[in-house]
Design a protein that fits this description.
This protein is about 35% helix and about 10% strand. The protein is mainly α. The chain has a domain of about 250 residues: DD-peptidase/beta-lactamase superfamily (Beta-lactamase), CATH 3.40.710. β1 and β2 form a beta hairpin. α3 packs parallel to α7, α3 packs across α8 and α10 packs across α11.
């Protein structure tokens, strides 16, 4: 074949790919449009076909900025930002950082599972055996049943303190030990066992903070650096971090918190020394990358975070369901989930299909 003929063949091949690529882009654009203009209410009345536009919903709820990432067929198909980072400010894009609140917990839980894989922690061991900086005060409940990592991750350790409000820019920020003891300048109560560990499911950010200190004590590492090495970097979460307060160098990329009336939070956001519970700054695309790693780990051993996935595979159901402690704004883990994995399943519902491809909600 001559050089001219080869060149014409290559051109023909490229030309044949252009319509297919254009068609694929058109399909994605249509799917984006369906999402943007096809939002529905949580409850749909039979016979009603009411749909809403994303911008209309943002105005109705007083939300200035939104970021979205969509997984389809085992990849991030599209990601997009809407609105602004702050009223009157720069637009939201796919790299805009948001405080992830309690989504921080399942991401950090993967780091804890990696320490289990390394043999530095055990799911069923009394955490007081490994805690150094502080220990859970013993009482009748903890003498009857230990507080374990499994119970901390599954909100069944019997520990107090539901959640944390964080610290405004003008407030002093306590250490983790001060938070656990409820000592000034902490704005939350002391974390204590007030019911039998393992006897019921009750959401506990206090328990997550104990897990944070446990991971720091056994590793001798700063928590943000530990999670970056064990979870964020391997999963390709390039924009995410647990640094608290948010470093000044990253402030320009962050969305400002707003009150329900649309007023920006004083100081833009709060600081959370309770990093395991609420310290993650992230993007939807980064969370999608983590979800994809978890999906692939269920169909292949070749992932950057295979270790915690293998721990999940080996976890057995507990043999009995935990009762919830009413009243609680969160439901108990579904029976099909094991107690020790309930925290690690909060971030996204994702599964591999029988054909080996993957989907997510």
């Amino acid at each position: 074949m001559s050089a001219a003929t080869s060149f014409r063949t290559v051109l023909a091949m490229i030309a044949s790919l252009v319509p297919a690529a254009a068609s694929a882009q058109g399909d994605i654009a249509q799917r984006i449009q369906r999402v943007e203009s096809g939002l529905r209410t949580a409850i749909t009345v039979r016979g009603s076909d009411a749909k809403f536009d994303v911008h209309d919903r943002m105005r109705m709820y007083g939300v200035p900025g939104v970021s979205v990432a969509v997984i389809n067929d085992g990849r991030i198909e599209w990601a997009k930002g809407y609105g602004v980072k702050e009223i009157g400010g720069a637009p939201v894009d796919t790299a805009t950082l948001f405080q992830a609140a309690s989504i921080s917990k399942p991401v950090a839980a993967i780091g804890a599972l990696r320490l289990v894989e390394e043999g530095r922690l055990a799911l069923d061991e009394d955490v007081n055996a490994k805690l150094v900086s502080w220990r859970i005060p013993q009482n009748d409940f903890t003498r009857r049943a230990p507080v374990t990592l499994e119970r901390l991750l599954s909100h069944s350790a019997g520990l107090t303190v539901h959640g944390f409000r964080g610290y405004a820019a003008t407030e002093s920020v306590p250490s983790v030990v001060q938070v656990l003891n409820g000592e000034s300048p902490a704005n939350s109560a002391a974390v204590r066992a007030d019911t039998l560990p393992g006897s019921l499911w009750r959401y506990s950010g206090g328990g997550s903070t104990v897990a944070q200190l446990l991971m720091q004590d056994v590793s001798g590492r700063d928590f943000p650096a530990l999670i970056r090495e064990y979870v964020l970097a391997p999963a390709g979460m390039v924009h995410s971090g647990y640094e608290q307060p948010l470093p000044a160098s990253r402030a320009a990329a962050a969305a400002t918190g707003h009150r329900a009336n649309g007023t920006p939070v004083s100081g833009k956001w709060h600081t959370y020394p309770e990093m395991f519970a609420a310290g993650l700054w992230t993007t939807p695309s980064d969370l999608a990358r983590l979800a994809l790693q978890m999906q692939r780990g269920h169909v292949s051993s070749r992932t950057a975070i295979t270790s915690p996935v293998s721990t999940i595979r080996r976890t057995r159901p507990r043999g009995r369901s935990l009762r919830a402690a009413p009243p609680s704004p969160f439901p108990p883990p579904l029976p099909r989930l094991t107690a020790r994995l309930s925290s690690a399943c909060d971030v996204v519902s994702c599964w591999p299909s029988r054909s080996g491809s993957s989907g997510a909600t």
